Fold this sequence. Notes:
The chain has helices at 21-39, 45-64, 73-86, 90-105, 112-122, 124-133, 139-159, 161-164, 174-179, 184-188, 194-214, 217-220, 223-245, 262-276. The protein is mainly alpha-helical. It folds into 2 domains: 15-89, no CATH class; 106-276, Farnesyl Diphosphate Synthase, CATH 1.10.600. α1 packs across α3 (73-86) and α2 (45-64) packs across α3.
Amino acid sequence: MSVDHYENFPVASLLCPPALRPAVVAIYHFARTADDIADEGDARTADRLADLAAYRQDLQAALAGRPLAARWRRVFEPLAAAAQQFRLPAQPLHDLLDAFEQDVRNPVYTHRDGVLDYCRRSANPIGRLLMHLYALHDARSLQQSDAICTALQLINFWQDLSIDGPRGRCYVPEAEMQHHRVAREELLTATDSARARVLVAALCSWSRTLMLQGAPLALRVPGRAGWELRLVVQGGLRILEKIETMRYAALAHRPTLGALDLPVLLWRAWRMPAQLR
Length: 277
């Protein structure tokens, strides 16, 4: 469902239309490299932000057709070619960098709106760039793409609760913690409890609702790309199913997809038209 460690972004899979594959890979490497700048290694916050600012300058140069610096040339030369060939919109690419800068600052999210605004910039731009490549620009398709991408981002958060907390990251809104009487410290130390499991169940329900709102898009995207999107949707729902099966103990264990899940995903992708009617 994904390449390397950039979740929620299936890149150049066998189902991706060959003509679009170089552009998809270019977008992937742009996002993956920026994510690594923001999150990998032991660099200081100020250094990460300075690198992301330099990265944004290179993005602007690539989109404007100006000479590229040597540091990230392998990222921006393919991206510049894709941007020129497909007239990629600049805003989603800048939105991704905004989200990575926000990750470096690691804010506290008070309400769901704050998390959704983060997803609007961290996840939805990927979907919008792919919709652009697929020449789907109508409002309904873009709204459903946003719903799928936001759901995938949220599902990834709940899937990673057991590893994000000890790293000092928490995307659970404070209002949700207070409602379920779960302290922030419990999430940061990945402390499983009955109250925490009720919280995780509520978070999974939120994500599932969003995914099902966007799922009909997978039936309208034509050809191989539509089948890829069906598998993306089913992969997200399968992770939620696994969290439910483990009685929402996501703070104790991280659910994953493996080879044995593939037949299930293929069957459910095939059955999606009947399921969504």
